[in-house]
Amino acid sequence: MKSIDEIVADKEVTLVERAHDGAKFHVNAGLGVLVVIVSNGGGWDHASVSVAPTHGRRMPLWDEMCFVKRIVWRDDECVVQYHPPEEDYVNVHPLVLHLWKPQGSSFLMPPKEFV
Fold it and tell me: Where are the domains of the chain?
């Protein structure tokens, strides 16, 4: 994950609030403004992404999630959206999507010919 200073240096990012383990910012993603909260506690880098209430009540789109990934993480980092077993499912905010990356390790990737 990039540093908070690297993230907010992007011209599409406006810092809203800084915290001890992350920050909240607004991202102008073209189709609307996204609210992004990043954190790096507990051994995980994490970003929660939602559409700003002033730009409609909807789930972030794939292209918007890709845009956030490029802003928050480096090009060579892999991040995921989890779909956990139903018994472990938590949905506190139904229109928010999350990107995750464990710190100090990487994900096993499928072979490129299968993608």
Answer: 4-114
